[in-house]
TrEMBL record:
Residues 376-410 form a coiled coil. This is PPM-type phosphatase domain-containing protein. Residues 6-245 form the PPM-type phosphatase domain. It comes from the Bacteria. The keyword Transmembrane applies. Keywords: Coiled coil, Membrane, Transmembrane, Transmembrane helix. CDD domains: PP2Cc. The chain crosses the membrane at residues 337-356. Gene3D superfamilies: PPM-type phosphatase domain.
Length: 421
């Protein structure tokens, strides 16, 4: 059975005027198995009311489901808890600027006998660390920037510094049906830990910084280090729950995977749905070009539907009040090209051209090349002649030097004989 060995939490206002984060429980209870954290959406007004209402509703609903120690939480129970929270949120909903409804993000953790069930909506996160505080799991934010990272358009470092990273595509709002994303974490060992946090924490600390701060002797020291760093760096409210787990039973289900991600839910086939209208799933009005619903987070258009829509729109000239169909001869068509074969042919032709240029020079180039070689050989011959002349001159100079020496000796000898006489 997975149990809580150590527990700490904090919720700080930071530099904001009020704290719109809310979490439960504040104090660990016996056999605690439900943990919830919410971050109210300040731009929608009364975010603190939304976060507290949703957090308390989900916590109460799931806690009431535990009828025995062997009770197992399911994804359906988690979704039912969210649906219940949305109904409770409607009761306290307050319309503010431009009629926008109150909203909040959500992350919830449920402890079962052999696994941990994690659900989230928005950009509040849940991390799981091993006993050496290495990150082995993190929820995926529901935001356009996170989607760009998943698709490989930008790096995680670029996403961390992106100015629009807090614009989320899914949230809990009054009167809007929302689907919670669930993940099942298996093979939980002694000393494994969970960290639930709002974006005030994850935006202030890189994952590596978080690992370093948590690598401390006690739970209180770990979370106090995180809180101190957030107080210096965070631009928002910052809240977190740290849970260190104990597993005193061996899982009967052998598996090589530590994390089993949530199954991709089948989406309904979309027919006769145009960009810039309404979400087919929840009815939210969409902006032109949007691919994900900001309320329920579902895909608005499947790739096939997007392609067909764009192809259809390209067949017309938009003249304002009317659209005129283009002649068939100039309508945009997708060329069917066998790219791999075409690339191979181009490379072969290029290599052949280079080989020909290297081995078959034109007549003029050949004559120029021959003339250049002749001039080069003539220069070498002249240099050789000069070298031979210099060598002969040196020999003649040496011979002349010897003759001068002999002549000098003869003159000296002759002068000596004359003095004797």
């Amino acid at each position: 059975m997975i149990k809580v060995m150590n527990f700490e939490c904090f919720s700080e206002q930071g530099i904001r005027e009020n704290n719109e984060d809310y979490l439960l429980p504040h104090v660990l209870e016996q056999q605690q198995r439900v943990f919830v954290l919410c971050d109210g959406m300040g731009g929608h007004g009364h975010g603190e009311v939304a976060s507290q209402t949703v957090c308390e509703s989900i916590y109460a609903f799931l806690s009431s489901q535990i009828d025995s120690e062997s009770y197992e939480f399911t994804e359906d129970a988690m979704q039912q808890a969210l649906d219940f929270a949305i109904e409770e949120l409607i009761k306290v909903d307050m319309f503010v600027e431009e009629g926008r409804r109150m909203g909040t993000t959500l992350v919830v953790v449920l402890l079962n006998q052999f696994d941990v069930l994690v659900g989230h909506v928005g950009d509040s996160r849940c991390y799981m660390f091993d006993k050496d505080w290495n990150k082995i799991f993190c929820t995926q934010d529901h935001s356009e920037v996170a989607e760009a990272v998943r698709r490989g358009f930008i790096t995680e470092q670029e996403a961390f510094n992106h100015p629009k990273k807090n614009i989320i595509t899914r949230s809990v709002q009054a009167g809007k049906q929302t689907e919670i994303e669930a993940n099942v974490l298996r093979n939980v060992s002694n000393g494994y830990s969970l960290l639930l946090c709002t974006d005030g924490v994850s935006d202030a600390l890189h994952d590596t910084e978080m690992e370093a701060l948590l690598f401390r002797p006690t739970t209180s020291e770990r979370l106090s280090g995180v809180k101190e760093e957030c107080a210096l760096k965070s631009r928002d409210n910052f809240s977190a729950i740290l849970i260190q787990m104990l597993q005193d039973e061996i899982s009967p289900e052998p598996t090589k995977k530590v994390i089993l991600p949530a199954e991709e839910r089948k989406q309904e086939e979309i027919k006769d749905h145009k960009l810039g209208t309404y979400c087919k799933h929840c009815g939210t009005e969409m902006m032109v070009g949007a691919k994900f619903c900001p309320c329920c987070g579902k895909n608005i258009l499947q790739p096939k539907a997007i392609k067909e829509t764009l192809l259809e729109e390209d067949k017309y000239w938009d003249l304002g009040l009317i659209k005129v169909k283009k002649p068939a001869s100039i309508q945009w068509k997708v060329p069917k090209i066998r790219w791999p074969f075409g690339i191979i042919v181009i490379l072969v032709l290029l290599n052949g051209f280079l080989f020909y240029k290297m081995n078959h020079l034109s007549d003029k180039q050949g004559r120029d090349f021959t003339l250049t070689n002749y001039k080069y050989e003539e220069k070498n011959r002249q240099i050789q002649v000069l070298n031979n002349a210099m060598k002969n001159l040196k020999q003649e100079n040496e011979l002349l030097r010897k003759n001068v020496k002999v002549l000098t000796d003869s003159i000296i000898k002759l002068n000596g004989n004359e003095k004797l006489q």
